[in-house]
Amino acid sequence: MILPAGDVEEKAAIGETAKIAKRNIGNMEFVLIPEGTFQMGDVLGEGDDDEIPIRTVSISRFLLSATTVTFDEYDAFCKAAEFPKPSDNGWGRGNRPVINVTWFDALAFCLWLSDRTGRTIRLPTEMEWEYAARQGGENVRFGNGENIARPTEINFDAREPYAEPYSNPGEYRGATLPVDRLSPNRLGLYQMSGNIWEWCSTKYTPSYGQETEVVEVWSLENRSRLFHGSEPVIVGEGTASRRIQGIRDSNLLKVDDLKALHDASQPLRLQISFDECPVLRGGAFDTYPRNIRATLRGWDNAQTRNSNRGFRVVSELD
């Protein structure tokens, strides 16, 4: 969603007196997510085994894009960086969410926008994502702040055979909607449930376990094993182009490096196994009601692309 320059503040579309602090960064609208502590996981007692045990998580303030990244925004990146453009499946580009992007495509966009804005732009962690989807950790079922999934409010597969006690049957659109078509939640975030799955920076684990066991190997701030033959790599803090140690003789990781991942014959190949896949959150237009819950955890190999997934981004605070 592209904004005019300058910060704005407006009343929330959902909620009584809450106000939304917005900021324009790189022609994208970001929302200030307040700090807080919440109970992460299956607080409503209806989830899957990987949504437990419930744990207490503290979140610092951060800026999250109000919508998922659009084709307009991603195409601008592709043009500037000479990066391959993804297919829109014939549904249209513009203000629709970018789809058919891998986790590494999302990382490339983050690196480019970081260089362009002089800020650290990254994917949200799984904890940040759930905290924001639940309006600062409230015990709500869906990312729009509601406990009933209605097809007029969320883009999901609402056909009768897949209905749940907490969903209303109705239309199955079979495609994405523009990112700001439906009402936001109380924090000003659009379509945190439905429309498209969203890549997170967190590696998937089949159980939360103890908090220290949820290793953020996919976080841009932490150590990770990205490519075959590399030792754990460290991402430098506070730099737009993050310096990676252990890859290509300590050269800067650039967008051009990630272009190689579009060609399986290139030497940059992922070292990845079942339990080293990035988390996906939020569900999509083709997802059943159960799987658009704010606590539901998805995952996939970082090099897969699909018409039902995209991403939104975090900007570090000044």
Report on this structure:
By secondary structure, this protein is an alpha+beta fold. It has a single domain, classed as paralog of FGE (formylglycine-generating enzyme). It is 12% helix and 16% strand. The chain has helices at 71-81, 103-117, 126-133, 255-259; strands at 8-11, 19-25, 28-33, 36-40, 55-59, 62-65, 121-122, 197-203, 278-281, 298-299, 309-310, 314-315. The radius of gyration is 19 Å and the shape is globular. Residues 1-17, 210-252 and 264-275 have low confidence and may be disordered.
List the helices and strands and how they pair.
Elements: E1 8-11, E2 19-25, E3 28-33, E4 36-40, E5 55-59, E6 62-65, H1 71-81, H2 103-117, E7 121-122, H3 126-133, E8 197-203, H4 255-259, E9 278-281, E10 298-299, E11 309-310, E12 314-315
Parallel strand pairs: 8-11
Antiparallel strand pairs: 1-2, 2-3, 3-6, 4-5, 6-12, 7-12, 8-9, 9-10
Beginning-to-end CA distance, first to last residue: 22 Å
Helix/strand/pairing category: alpha+beta
CATH superfamily membership: paralog of FGE (formylglycine-generating enzyme)
Give the helix proportion (percent range).
10-25%
Q: What are the segments in which pLDDT stays under 50 over at least 5 consecutive residues?
A: 1-17, 210-252, 264-275
Q: Give me the strand/helix succession.
A: EEEEEEHHEHEHEEEE
**What name is given to the CATH topology?**
paralog of FGE (formylglycine-generating enzyme)
What count of domains describes the coordinates?
Answer: 1
| Main pleated-sheet profile | 6 strands, antiparallel
Radius of gyration (CA) equals 19 Å
CATH class: Alpha Beta
CATH architecture: Alpha-Beta Complex
Counted beta strands: 12
Average pLDDT number: 80
Number of helical runs? 4
Task: Label the overall shape.
Answer: globular
Report the sheet-strand fraction.
Answer: 15-25%
How are the strands of the largest sheet arranged?
1-2-3-6-12-7
GO molecular function, one term: formylglycine-generating oxidase activity
Organism: Candidatus Kentrum sp. LFY
Protein name: Formylglycine-generating enzyme, required for sulfatase activity, contains SUMF1/FGE domain
Domain Sulfatase-modifying factor enzyme-like: 29-218
